[in-house]
Amino acid sequence: MGEQSGASGPGQGGNECLPEHPAQHGRSGGPLRRRWALWAPLTGLTVLVLVGAALRWAGRSGAADLVWAAVTLVALAPAALSVLRDLWRRRFGVDVIAVLALVGALVVREYLAGAVIAVMLATGRTLEAYAQRRATRDLRALLERAPRTARRRTADGGIEVVPVDQVAVGDRLLVGPGDVVAVDGITEDPATLDESVVTGESQLVEKAVGAAVASGVVNAGAGFGLRATESAARSTYAGIVRLAEEATARKAPTVRLADRYAAAFVPFTLVLAGLGWLLSGDIVRAVAVLVVATPCPLLLATPIAIVSGLSRVARRGVLVRDGGSLEALGRVRTLLVDKTGTLTAGRPRVADTVVAAGGDPDEVLRWAASVEQLSPHVMAAALVEHARDRGLRLTMPTEVTEEPGRGVRGRVDGRRIRVGQLDGDPPSWARPRIEEPGHSVVWVADDTGPIGAILLEDPVRPDARRAVDRLRAAGLSRIVMVTGDRPDAARRVAEAVGVDDVIARCAPQEKVARVRAEADRAVTVMVGDGVNDAPALAEAHVGVAMGATGATASADVADAVLTVDRLDPLADAVEIARYARRIAVQSATIGMGLAVCAMGFAAAGLLPPVAGAFLQEGIDVLVILNALRALYGGLHATGSPSA
Question: Are 315 and 138 in contact (CB under 8 A)?
């Protein structure tokens, strides 16, 4: 049902590393041409430097210097324009050192040193583009697989191929063998699916008739019918693609990490260069200091490590919005987690309906389900499904309003009905039942007060305890469960999964306050899956939404989305984030440390500009190769697929 585009290759080179949109496939002239565009600037400058060397070897020193000077000017012009543009925007970065080094090489007629600096800068840009493309390979794969068409059944029993954005809720589709499911839907036939792209799990999944299917999964068996339950724009894969686009388009704050130190590093460099010149009377020493001071390790290695981490967590079923969020995830110490749909299955079932004396349980259930028809909450869906299973006739409500975390109000058959939490103490007729452990309570009231209580049961996820243990092993020292449920039901879940603290009867506003309080003490991550969790997710250092449906408010404000319906991939993401951040800092520290040592030798006259330029080139390659280690390792869990 969804056509797949071919693999996209590198773009235009430079410092840009944006994924090629599937719709652009085939317009860029093929992989070979794109690779040539990436490596052409570096290749051209290297060839010119070698031409100069050949001329010098042939005894034509003047011509060699002319070629090397031209190479230096080719690198100086865009670098100088970039610095001037930053200064115009009142930004001051370490790029100024590279410009001063190129200018200095021309002034002291160290043309070969200038040419080597030019090649060094081109090498840095090319390696950065190449490494980031390598690091974002998994994110780009998500974009390339986005389905663009679907096979829709027509009224006369035929099949038509339509653009995926023309699929509407309720359309009946045909998913052929090998097709990518274009929209979320319900199966009309048994299906065998490969969900690895969405969930990270490689095992095939069998779906029975009536099972929910997320967009983005691949039909690994025979063709089957699918009834669309969401449009393409509101489906699971649309949310994944949007987050992948943002993750690849945004650069981590560490991309310009060197600029944070510019206020100290640039003056230090200039003072050291000036001292070398002043004490020796030789300006060449100052130029040599500037040459080896070019901070490519910070400019290149750190973003490569962070983007590598982004790609790896995507492969584990966690889409992180940007590099800044990944860095924060690598520093988290506290987790606040919503109960329903996160630690519990998120598919509550109606266990019983308790009513006042003389009341009709089916009628109370019908009123509640009628009001809840327009609510996206999982408990609302449970009420509606149970009422329909009992054959109750639901009425479309009017004057419906919803207060997140409190409940829904509406008019049914002329009667004002409120479904949700209870204001005040429970009535005596309900106490014996609602005090039984293991149940959540949804109250039904009219203008006279409570008229019924619907008991729901939502079992604890079998993997919840293991997920909490994994998160502790990943470095989280405090795990708190927050829920709007009753204290006894909340404590039962808390004891089962092993959290440190539990906060019950927590309204959305209180969740926000709790998250803010925890965030004041430590770097905090909040995990939730409902619309009422959105404010709390936005308040945390890292907000994580369960489920990738891009239309939900929680996914829209979240810094990360779990594409698999489990909590344990978050532990993988935390471990990967910590490892990527450690590699980034390590690469920058090693690179800058070596550069500072070289600057000292240059100031003492022991390292001429040409040798310094070649040394700095070697340092760049070293730290970039070290940064690419972030593509592997760092996971301590057993039994996990290799990342």
Answer: yes
d(CA 323, CA 326): 5
Counts of helices then strands in the chain (DSSP H, E): 23, 22
Neighbours of 447 (CB within 10 A): 8
How many beta carbons lie within 10 A of that of residue 295, not counting itself? 25
Residue 220: partners with Cβ closer than 8 Å, 6 or more residues away:
177, 178, 192, 193, 194, 204
300 HSE (CA, 13 A, CB side):
31
In this prediction the pTM is 0.63
Which amino acid belongs to residue 201? E
Report pLDDT digits (tens) over 272-311: 989 989 888 889 898 889 888 866 655 667 777 887 888 7
What DSSP assignment string belongs to 345-390? Answer: -S--EEEEEEE-TT--HHHHHHHHHHHHTT--SHHHHHHHHHHHHT
Q: Measured between alpha carbons, how far is 430 from 130 in angstroms, rounded to an integer? A: 66
Residues 554 and 545: their CA atoms lie apart, in Å, by 6
Three-state DSSP class for 550?
coil
Reading the block at residue 240, the tokens are 């994944």
Sign (positive or negative) of CA dihedral 126, 127, 132, 133: positive
Smallest CA-to-CA distance from 417 within 441, 382, 442 is with: 442
Q: Which residues are catalytic?
A: 338
